[in-house]
Amino acid sequence: MSEIVAASVSILFHGLAFAMVLYLVSVGLSVTMGLMGFVNLAHGVFAALGGYIATSLMTQMGVGFAPAVAAGVVTAMVVSVPLERLLYRRLYGADELAQVLLTVGLVFMSVAAGKFLWGPLAQPFHPPAALSGQIELGTREFPTYRSFLIVAGAVLVTALWLGLERTRFGAQIRAAVDNRRMAQSVGINTSGLFTAAFALGSGLAALGGALGAEILAIEPAYALEHLIYFLIVVSVGGLGSIRGPFFAALLLGVADTGFKYLLPEFGAFFIYALTLVVLLWRPRGLFGYA
Amino acid sequence: MRKMEIIAPALAGAALAGLAAAPASAQTVKIGVIGTFSGPTEQQGEMLERGLQLYYKTHQNDLPKGVKIQLIERDDTGANPEVAKRLAQELVTRDHVQLLTGFVWSPNFMSVAPVATQGKIPAISLNAAATKAVQMSPYMVRVSFTLPQQAYPLGTWAAKKGYKRAYTAVSDYAPGHEAEEAFSKAFKAAGGQVIGQLVFPAPPTTPDFAPFLQKIKDAKPDLVYIFVPAGGQATAVMKTSVDLDYKGSNIALISTQDLVPDEEIANMGDAIIGLITAGTYTSDSPRPANKAFVAAWDKEYPGSKLRPDFESADAYSGMKMIFEFVSKTHGKFTGDEAMDFFKHWKDPDSPRGPIMVDPNTRDILQNVYMRRMEKQNGKAVDVEFETIGMVNSLGQVVSSK
């Protein structure tokens, strides 16, 4: 009996940490896909960028953990603005295939750029001493950094939800997601809103990429390799929703970890089976409206 | 005007004479290299390619006059046997290569067996390690290593050292399974007990090994034998074992050399100090032939963060074998003559120490060393502290050294 409890605790813990990383990276994608109706397969590129900047600053210039992560987030946000204004904007409302081709092209470019700038090896990520090692909670020991991820993730998620529920900006986004034309007619500057939302989503992705570098290693093919996970989180969660991807990430994170723990040979297969089942039951995702 | 009437035909005559004279002594041997130059496993391909190119570039003058080797390289993009087979077919039928080599991945090496047999084109593995691969065609030979070669002696060594409860965790493909079988067999034969086994999906779906290593930790073994293909996964495993505090829980990790590829060691930090592995090559070996090899590497790739690893050393030796044969035959040979040479090839002074091909299996026979990671002058250094002896591809010690 105690073995089952121990196993469940292990699965929940690691699953939760993984879920937090997935959520942070994917929530921006849900907003852009729901808000702009734009299939942005290059979303993972911002996560990778955040990770690359943060790890490079930490390893090569000895910058502290918090400033390095912040720098990664700011860089991604700054890069996202011209990208949105000059490239993405042209294909709003365009045929989805065109959007896919554009963003997949961006992904390939990012893979080559990553390799060229930082080499083919995964970037070393050494969390600060304060967040390394083990932490004792009750009778068990847990890796400190992953515990930090869970806590940081919970805090950020709450801040995000509050931000979107309680601020005007959040209300504008929700309005534009619900009905863009109506939102425009009541005077909401949707085009400026899109840029801002895109920057926010990219910044969050960068945060997820930088914090999650321990779980999802930063390497050139990052955006391509983990794309499927981000897409599953967003489609199971529901496009345009903020809450949906959270529950989807939880489901995905815990289930993936659980299957790996209990049935390692079939680990990957069950996630896809689970996704299939959920989407058959709720084609719009758990909380989708788009 | 008149001068031109004399000069032009004279020039033409000289040119024709020159053209007629040239082919008689020139011989270009075309060699197909099926490597991995893109995709998530590109790093391993890069290590092999560098070793191969290093020998190729620095020994051009060793070839007899008029004999050239032309490398025709193709990208299999990873462990994709269908792609590798197609590339091999094209290299043989369209490019008319006389030899096929490269092969980072065992599935790819195995897939070209029919091409090698039908075309009578020798296929030389510079890395692909699955034991049964070379048996699939009489035209296949290997200069790298096999997993049982290292895992079997390791199992015996570990049990003799006093470890009693082992857990094995390997990647789900041929070398992984061979490694697990060999280790478990040897460990059990020497009195140990294998309390559990686990298989990592390959290719890995996410690089997070935490759930697997947590499960192993929960089972409380005293020793864990892990095999993952060399490269980024090795670092991920080491870091996760530190995250989960294996040392604090008295769980020792042990592996074959794939867990400590030289180019990744700098990334692993102190997690790796004290780790014991069985292997055939480390760039830290003080052997003179290795020092020369590493010096040549540093000269060819100055400032490179990538240290040469076993893939590089194996590719280097493989190229040497090819060069020696091409020099001997001046580039004119049949597939059967090539196989005859390769089967009996040996190099008593390679960067790995003495190596030779076993004529009965066409597989490699070489020294296996027990190594420990130590910290010297602030750097992690792999120290060979024991030589097990010449071991064959099945893991049997053939002679002690």
Structure description:
- The complex is a heterodimer of chains A (290) and B (401).
- Chain A is built from 12 helices and 2 strands.
- Chain A is an all-alpha fold and 290 residues long.
- Chain A has one domain (2-281).
- In chain A, strands 1-2 form a two-stranded antiparallel sheet.
- In chain A, helix 2 (43-61) runs antiparallel to helix 3 and helix 11 packs antiparallel against helix 12.
- Chain A is globular and about 60 Å long.
- Chain B has 401 residues and is α/β, with parallel strands linked by helices.
- Chain B folds into 2 domains: 26-145 and 287-361, Response regulator (Rossmann fold, 3-Layer(aba) Sandwich), CATH 3.40.50.2300; 147-279 and 368-399, Response regulator (Rossmann fold, 3-Layer(aba) Sandwich).
- In chain B, strands 6, 7, 8, 9, 10, 11, 12, 13, 14 and 15 form a 10-stranded mixed β-sheet that branches. In chain B, strands 2-1-3-4-5 form a 5-stranded parallel β-sheet, sandwiched between helices.
- In chain B, helix 2 packs parallel to helix 12 (310-329) and helix 6 runs parallel beside helix 7 (174-189).
- Classes of the chains: A mainly alpha (290), B alpha/beta (401).
- The A-B interface holds A 3, 6-7, 10-11, 14-15, 17-18, 115, 119-122, 124, 126, 133-134, 141, 143, 145-146, 214-217, 219, 221, 225-226, 229, 256-258, 260-261, 264-265, 267-268, 271 and B 39-40, 42-43, 46, 172, 198-201, 205-208, 210-212, 214-215, 218, 232, 235-236, 239, 243-245, 248, 263-264, 266-267, 269, 305-306.
